[in-house]
């Protein structure tokens, strides 16, 4: 597990941090946790060794872009959970200012290879570009907050994906697209420094063979680390999911012993849609796994994890990870009648544990969908304005 993010002793600091070219600044709205945001932070981290993440206020985003879906506090929690973020800084200005970068000891700001404009239509990075303090990384294609909001508003399901079948024989994706996805997953399975192969290991489970197959190399649990299992859909990877994982680590940590090794099982799109219907999951299996993969509170993923972790599945986990699964944790969500027997095997083994209610417990994908649909016209207008703005920004590049 990656170390926790640092906290600000005071904000803004009265005394500036010493200037260091290894301290990198990145800023943004970071509305929703999605792998586009995480990818920008990963690339920025690799340009130095300490990543300061500026997060714009709700008010500044409303003025310059439109209404946020997530509040500043929620967005700050999401950034702090990213394995590559060292210091979240709330209320960072929408137009990046060298003065703020100076306060936090950062010589360079990093942004994707697209243009972001303010309310007046000017480049948000014009000042730092002129000062020679701007570095460019590749923007992650195929995912954005705008796209996710669009899926909710239009109730689309075209994004759903059977990853196991695509890996075997691409149908919905091309072979090149699948290879790009796996290369991206390999990169996101890096440690806190961004080093590939030293972070989470990723498996995919087959109910047909009752076996796990490794699809991304990573670190298996060392002797003495307690193996913990959690599972879920992790759709939109909300503060509710993040706080649950943090509390699992906290609950399973014993003084004087190594940190627990947390394995996160992620259900397939079909399993989630069978249970929740409509257009759930909003994010497909690849997008959801990338969200969980970048989180500092997990050590491994098992994709296509069964809804019911039965004896066969738990036994296969123990064989895969080379040790006993010592606890299976579930969050504070209420079971429906059909779900009451979900964790019977874990209870039978005496390893079932629950995380009680917490401040973010009610914030799940359904709650976020409700936020969007309760102000549908407002968000439709946001989407329209974003489309016009994006066209202008594209023209500024070309």
TrEMBL record:
A GO CC term assigned to this protein in UniProt: cytoplasm
Pfam families, per the entry: CTP_transf_like (PF01467)
Keywords: Coiled coil, Lipid biosynthesis, Lipid metabolism, Nucleotidyltransferase, Phospholipid biosynthesis, Phospholipid metabolism, Transferase
A single MF term (Gene Ontology): ethanolamine-phosphate cytidylyltransferase activity
Pathway per the UniProt entry: Phospholipid metabolism; phosphatidylethanolamine biosynthesis; phosphatidylethanolamine from ethanolamine: step 2/3; Lipid metabolism
Organism superkingdom: Eukaryota
Keyword Phosphoprotein belongs to the record: no
Coiled coil: 164-191
EC number: 2.7.7.14
Domain Cytidyltransferase-like: 26-149, 230-353
UniProt key word Nucleotidyltransferase: yes
GO biological process, one term: phosphatidylethanolamine biosynthetic process
Enzyme class, spelled out: transferase
Family: Belongs to the cytidylyltransferase family.
Protein name in the entry: ethanolamine-phosphate cytidylyltransferase
Organism for this UniProt entry: Pyronema omphalodes (strain CBS 100304) (Pyronema confluens)
Classification lineage: Eukaryota, Fungi, Dikarya, Ascomycota, Pezizomycotina
């Amino acid at each position: 597990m990656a170390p926790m993010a640092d906290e600000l002793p005071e904000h803004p600091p009265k005394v500036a941090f010493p200037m260091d070219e290894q301290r990198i600044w990145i800023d943004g709205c970071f509305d929703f946790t999605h792998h586009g945001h995480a990818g920008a932070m990963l690339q920025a981290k690799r340009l130095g060794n300490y990543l300061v993440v500026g997060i714009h206020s709700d008010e500044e985003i409303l003025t310059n872009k439109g209404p946020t879906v997530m509040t500043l506090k929620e967005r700050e929690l999401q950034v702090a959970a990213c394995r590559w973020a060292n210091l979240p800084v709330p209320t960072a200005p929408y137009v990046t200012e060298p003065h703020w970068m100076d306060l936090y000891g950062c010589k360079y700001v990093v942004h994707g290879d697209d243009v972001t404009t303010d309310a007046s239509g000017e480049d948000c990075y014009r000042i730092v570009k002129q000062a020679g303090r701007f570095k460019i990384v590749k923007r992650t294609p195929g995912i954005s907050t705008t796209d996710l909001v669009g899926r909710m508003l239009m109730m689309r399901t075209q994004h759903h994906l059977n990853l196991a079948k695509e890996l075997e024989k691409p149908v919905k994706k091309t072979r090149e697209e699948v290879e790009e996805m796996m290369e991206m997953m390999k990169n996101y399975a890096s440690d806190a420094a961004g080093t590939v192969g030293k972070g989470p290991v990723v498996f995919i489970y087959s109910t047909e063979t009752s076996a796990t197959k490794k699809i991304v190399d990573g670190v298996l649990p060392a002797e003495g680390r307690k193996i913990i299992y959690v599972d879920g859909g992790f759709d939109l990877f909300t503060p509710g999911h993040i706080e649950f994982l943090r509390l699992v680590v906290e609950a399973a940590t014993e003084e004087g012993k190594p940190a627990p090794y947390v394995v996160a099982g992620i259900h397939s799109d079909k399993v989630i849609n069978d249970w929740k219907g409509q257009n759930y999951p909003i994010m497909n299996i690849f997008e959801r796994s990338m969200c969980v993969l970048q989180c500092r509170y997990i050590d491994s993923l098992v994709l296509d994890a069964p809804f019911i972790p039965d004896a066969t599945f738990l036994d296969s986990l123990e064989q895969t990870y080379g040790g006993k699964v010592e606890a299976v944790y579930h969050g504070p969500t209420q079971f429906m009648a059909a779900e009451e027997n979900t964790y019977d095997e874990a209870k039978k083994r005496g390893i079932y544990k629950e995380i009680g209610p917490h401040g973010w417990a009610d914030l799940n994908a359904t709650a976020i969908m409700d936020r969007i649909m309760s102000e549908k016209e407002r968000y439709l207008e946001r989407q329209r304005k974003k489309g016009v703005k994006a066209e202008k920004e594209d023209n500024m590049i070309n």
